[in-house]
Design brief:
The chain has 226 residues and is an alpha+beta fold. 17% of the residues lie in helices and 30% in strands. The strands form 2 sheets. The protein has a 6-stranded antiparallel beta barrel. It has a 6-stranded antiparallel beta sheet with strand order 11-10-7-8-9-12. Strand 8 and strand 9 form a beta hairpin.
């Protein structure tokens, strides 16, 4: 979607519309995470929202068709295929179906969602310059919940170039929010929810992948719509 300039009033509704539910476990259909549409029609989520094993990559290379079930914010069913799964940073990227391998109905459903939904822009910076002063690199964030609410908080980038940030939220982070968008006050996607358990049992703080560093450079460019 192009031709409309974003304002502060419609930034967050756009993010909400781009947030999807992901049923990434065939063995447990009740286990549902979140994901978010970004540039070039890709979906970002947490790797642990997807069921995969050591052989998944080999099966994909050998031509096996692996896909995951998606539900859009308006309740439409989609399918998406894995393009990138990285379990250390806990980040994964899903994308459109191969039209030569899937029914046109499913291919068209994904394309329709992509064309009718404004993708969330990726945050291209690393945050305020970190220093030894407490909170010097801190900035505001908002997290989309599985209950379709916004939770406010702060994030800190302690070391430039590192693939993680530290996040604290004003409410508890539920495990069902995994993979959901973490945006800054301008509505740019900084990260996705990964550590629902938090630190020392406190579920309102923990690490999250800094997308600018956690994604490969080529994939970050694609996800940015470049």
């Amino acid at each position: 979607m192009t031709g409309r300039e974003q304002t502060s009033e419609d930034v967050f509704p756009d993010v909400a519309a781009a947030t999807v539910r992901i049923r990434g476990y065939r063995s447990d259909h009740e286990k549902v995470g979140l994901g978010v549409l970004v540039g070039s029609g890709l979906l970002l989520t947490a790797a642990h929202c997807l069921e995969f094993d050591n052989d998944t990559g080999a099966r994909l290379i050998l031509g096996e068709h692996v896909h995951f079930e998606i539900e859009t914010a308006c309740g439409r069913a989609l399918k998406a295929v894995p393009l990138f799964i990285e379990s250390i940073s806990d980040i994964a990227v899903l994308g459109p179906l191969d039209r030569y391998a899937y029914d046109e109905e499913w291919v068209g459903a994904y394309e329709s969602f992509r064309e009718g939904t404004r993708p969330v822009p990726l945050w291209k910076g690393e945050g305020p310059s970190p220093s030894s002063a407490p909170g010097a690199g801190e900035f505001g964030v908002r997290v989309r919940s599985h209950e379709k609410r916004w939770i406010t908080g702060t994030a800190t980038v302690f070391r430039a170039g590192r693939p993680h940030l530290w996040m604290k939220t004003d409410e508890r982070i539920d495990g069902r929010m995994s993979g959901g968008p973490i945006v800054n006050d301008s509505g740019a996607l900084v990260s996705v929810v990964t550590a629902a358990g938090g630190y020392l049992g406190m579920t309102n703080e923990g690490h999250a992948p800094l997308l600018r560093q956690a994604l490969p450079e080529w994939l970050f460019r694609v996800a940015s719509g470049a």
